[in-house]
Amino acid sequence: MGKISRKNWILIWILGMTGQICWNIENSWFNTFVYDKIAPEPAIVSWMVGVSAAVSTFCTFLVGTWGDRKGKRKPFICIGYILWGIFTFIFGATEMIPKNPLFIAAACVVLADAVMSFFGSVGNDGGFGPWTTDISNEHNRGKLGGALAVMPVFATIFGAVVSGLIIDQIDFFAFFGLMGGLVAVVGVMALFTLEDSPTLHPKRDEKGFWHQFLTVFNWETVRGNKELFWVFLVMTVYFIGFNVYFPYITIYFVNYLGYDYGMTGIIQGVGLLAAAVMTIPAARFIDKGKAPQVIFTALLCNTAGLILVSLSQNLIILLAGVFGAGIGYILVLQSLTAWMKNLYPEEQRGQFEGIKQIFFVCIPMITGPAIATQVINRMGVEMEVSGTMGMVPAPSLFLVSALLTLFTLIPLAAAGRLQKVRQRG
Q1: Sequence-ordered list of residues with C-beta below 8 angstroms from that of 97, at least 6 positions apart, any chain
Q2: What is the model's pTM?
Q3: How far is 391 from 245, CA to CA, in rounded Å?
Q4: CB distance 64 to 123 below 8 Å
Q5: Distance between CA atoms of 196 and 423, rounded to whole angstroms?
Q6: DSSP E strands: which ranges in 235-324?
Q7: 8 Å CB contact between 353 and 126
Q8: Cα atoms found within 13 Å of the Cα of residue 264, Cβ hemisphere only
Q9: Domains in the chain, please, with CATH?
Q10: Closest CA to 13 of 94, 132, 166, 163
Q11: d(CA 390, CA 6)
Q12: Burial class of residue 101, CB neighbours in 10 A (0-12, 13-18, 19+)
C-alpha cells in the first residue's frame, strides 16, 4: 500500500487550496462584483456561471485526454495556474467598461470569466485533479478525499472572511489583482517542485487524439462503469440544488439581510469551519466502503441547514443553518471524491475527470443558476443596489434548494446497491 509522500501532500495542499480560493472568488465574489459594479441582474450571473461551466468542462476533457496521451500532468498544472492568475486580474478590469449599453458590459464580463475559467480548468481540473488520482490508491483516498473536500470549505472561509475584509478596504479591482498574482506565483513554484507520478505512462490511441477524445462518449463506456455513472448522477442532482443558492448567498446576506461583507464572511466562515471537523470521522467510514451512508446523513444535515437559513435573520440560527448546509456540502464532496477515484479506469483517469466535470460543473452550474434566476425574479425582492433597481434573492431561494437536494436520494439508492454488489463480488 503506497503512501502519498510528504512532499506531495504539501503540493496537494498548496495547489489545491490556491485553486479552490480562486474558484471561490469566481463562484462567490464575481457574482457579487456583477451586482455591485455592473448591474443587479440575476440573468447576467446565470449566463456567466453557465458559460464558464461549459468552457471548463470542455477544457477538462481536452487537457485530460492530452495528459493521458502524453503521460504528463505537470506542464498543464504549471502553465494553467500561471495564466489562471493573469486572467483573474484581467477580469477585475471589466468594471471600467461603460455600462451603457448594458449588453456590451454583460458580454465582456461573461467572456472574461470564460477565459479565466478555461485556464483554471487547464491547471486545476485537467491537470491537478488527475495528478492526485495518479499519486494515490484505494487505501488512502478517503484521507485524500477528506483533504480535497475541506479545501473548498477553507477557501470559502478565506473567501468569505478575509476576502470580505480586503474588499471593504481596497475594493474589487485591487483584490482580483492580488489574488491573481498569488495563483500565478504558485504556478511558477510548481515548475520547480512538482513531479509526475512514476506510475503514469503515455496511453495513446493509435487512431489519433480525437478518436481517443471521443472514446468516452459511447454507451459501452456507461455500461462498463454503471456504478461510477450512478455516482456521477448523485453528484449532478446534489450540485444542481447547491448551485441554486450558493452563487447568490453573499448577495442574500449583504442585500436582503443587510450585513456588510466582513460580517457575511464571519457568519459563513464560522459555520463552515465547524462543519469541516466532520471530515475526520467521515474518512474512516468512507475507507470502509460506507460512502452511501455518509452521503445520506449529509443530505439530511444539508436540508435542515438550508431551511434554518431561510427561517430567520437571527445570527445564531443563521450560524446553525450554515453549519448544517456546510456539513452536507463537505461530506457529500468528500464521499463522492473517494468513491469516484476508486472507480476510474486506470488508463482513462484524465478523460474521466472530464466526464466528472459534466456532472459536477457543467449540468449543475447551468441548471442551478437558471432555476435560481426564475425563483429570484418571481419570488425575490425588488430593491436598489448601488443606485440601480434590481431583484434580490429572498428566503424562498433556500427552500427551493433544500427541496431539490432531497432528490439526490434517488440516484444514491441505485449507486449504493451497485456498490454492495461489487463489494460482495
Answers
A1: 104, 105, 108, 109
A2: 0.75
A3: 15
A4: no
A5: 31
A6: none
A7: yes
A8: 26
A9: 6-424 (1.20.1250.20)
A10: 132
A11: 50
A12: exposed
